[in-house]
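Consider a typical record:
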Amino acid sequence: MHRPEPNFNVAAQVIKQAEQNPGNTAIIFEGKTTTYGEFATRVRKQAGLLRSRGVCVGDRVGFLGFNQPGFIETMFATISLGAVFVPLNFRLTGEELAFIIGDAGVHSLVVDPELTDVIDSVRDRLPCHHYFAVERTRPGYDCLEQAMQETDAAPEIASSSAHDTLLIMYTSGTTGLPKGAMLTHGNIVWNNVNANLAFGAKNTDVLLTAAPLFHIGGLNVMTISAFQMGSPLVLLRHFEPEAVLQAIERYKVSHMFGAPAMFLFMSQHPAFSNTDLSSIDILIVGAAPCPESLISLYGERGISFCQGYGLTETSPFASFLGPQRCLEKLGSAGLPPVHTDIRIVDGSNSPVAALERGEICIKGPNIMKGYWNRPDATANAIDGLGWFHSGDVGYLDEEGYLYICDRLKDMVISGGENVYPAEVESVLFEHSAIAEVAVIGLPDDKWGEAVTAVAALVPDADLSLEELRSFAETKLARYKLPLRLHVVDALPRNPAGKVLKFQLRESLA
């Protein structure tokens, strides 16, 4: 008996939610509410527009812009045609964007009107057939809004398998050229199954997204799953601590994803103490370890953190640490979710014992299909048994809880000893004068590399290297203590909130 294959197209799941609950709130953005019925109509209209301009199954459609409903509409319109969505980082230069757009072979490009100049600076080198500007007309760009109104809606959603590519998301490229991770419909679906089994989800949850949507954390920790569940999404154009606090109170937000730095900046805002946060069910934190002081600070308000570890290539969740054991397992990234496995391997790709450090490897249906046009990089990242090699150093404790030590490339070798910056940073962060800190290795004639602390201080604070070493010497071996201290106004971060250590090394070396 022949059984038809299920349609794994994520857009089909979202459109079905809209058909069943057309009056429910889909998006709240800058004071305007869009229902699921209205959202589905706009997605179908834009899909009809893209198809009329020649977008076919497998073609790539790019979006360059700040957080806005148009980003999400373009994504679902693209994938409803069986095409592939390419989110673009609005912080990149024209040269950087030209490489990514050319590498992906973007057929049609949707651009925020504020960002058309950066595209125009390299437009003569781009492969795009069509250019659209969101909401407004720009020279050389069709107005997306007007063009949608003049086009018939696409009546059907393309049928997609779990293995078909949904989006190509380019890694941040902190070293070398960025690579496009091909994430499939199955990757997205299974990631969100994992997440929902870990911390639950229902369509009455109110989710808030302030992290940038072009990053996997902003896009698929909660945003896509909100539409799969039929939940309301409060969307902010940019992250601003006061705006987030106001939105939480006004819209009774229950869930939010962010990097630790985002929650830190919220807690440091004068409005934090007087904002009603009672609606918060859980805050999901990723991109870096969450310090105990931050967990305790929010805990005093009755708010729990669910910490996660993952990468673009894992869609992103590879492990969770729920609020039940977040203090008992402080510093841990938790356990792998139901449908994903983790192991730690040595240099010969053999598993190591509990508590022994090695490279973190992940396996499951949330692992990317591979890197776009980079079979060599794919083969280096995913071994013959299907394990994705993360490039992160970590270990599993006796209960299987994962601890992240550092990136392989960020490890400092001082006097022949391996120093893992995250361990040192965790101790230094406890100093009352330090607002944020990063530890890097800088060339040193005596030690090979000098353990170097780069710190931004709280207002009106002073800190000397001797004071910092004295503070940390009871908690760290002497070879781990900073040999140098550089005080800066702020640490450079990528859109995911991760400190750009290669920039620090280049500027201070």
